[in-house]
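Reviewers of the previous submission asked for a worked example of the structure-prediction workflow described in the proposal, so we include one complete record here. The input consisted solely of the amino acid sequence. No template or homolog information was supplied to the procedure at any stage.
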Amino acid sequence: MVANLQSSVHTLKAKPGSLIDCALYITFFPKVVSGPIVLWRDFVGEFPKRVISIDNCVDGVNRIIIGFAKKLILADMFGLYISEIERSGAYGIDCPTAWLSALLYMLQIYYDFAGYSDIAIGLAKITGFDFKENFNFPYRSRSISEFWRRWHISLGTWFKEYVYIPLGGSRVSKNRTLLNLAIVFALTGIWHGANWTYILWGSINGIMVIIERVAENKRFYQKTPDVLKWLFSMFVTLICWELFRFHHIKDFWNWVLIAIGHITYPSVNFTWEYFLDCRLLVLVVIGIVGATVLGRGSVQEFLRKYENSQAYFIVREIMLLALFAVSILCMVNSTYSPFIYFQY
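From that input alone, the workflow returned the following structure tokens.
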């Protein structure tokens, strides 16, 4: 964080601030734990525009409620089912349940981190700061490259500014550009932890981005239907998140063997039918729709069209109050767990 401040000033991308400004930047509580990563030039640029108003407070509180709902209603409930699957897995697990646990983790990690980012952005909004979005519906991506432009945007911006561009970015030869991409993703894996699963996770993402960069102008790639690109990208993302879930390569490989049917158990106490009850099915549908359909341009345009309507405001606030009440009930029922990204 301090290096970010120094670099921004040294490269003349931002003006230096006072000691109080610097101390506020370093300790600003909404972002200090795990993001979003706010560059010094963006932070100091907010000072002249910073306004504490009723509208900002309402928008900030609304964003916090949405963040709580993502975390407590969706992420923590998905995490609860994953824990039950893992406990029963000690006595055997079937192939569909292995895939179900992977889907649940894919949804959990998104709503957990996106929920935290919403809370941080909302808290900053209340105090008059407008932080940039950290997620832009990444599960709508049709390539891994697009995924990383939509997922943890602030981290991607940081690596671009302080690693990729200093290495030469895309201004160098094609082979050197590909090498720069490989370095960035290798460092991204190490940034999450000095563990072989994280390194492999970063390497797979890097290899996919390099392959896409090489193939992007090829005729076969351009003619591939978007739905197939989306399905393949989400499949790669799902597999990569399993590397995030397991802390040892052996555990990940064991999941792969179960998922492809190479390892089977003579008797399984609880199959996918036991875990996929009505409540989980509803939550999964809500989770998938919220991560994909709500990001459609037509849906976003509809929401923008009516956002200044008084009726829309009343309906929205009632729905948000209901979400907040349900979130509190979930927390009281002890389904809360710490944010996943607090460990990175």
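Residues 206 and 330 are 38 Å apart (CA to CA). We consider this example representative of the routine output the project will generate in years two and three.
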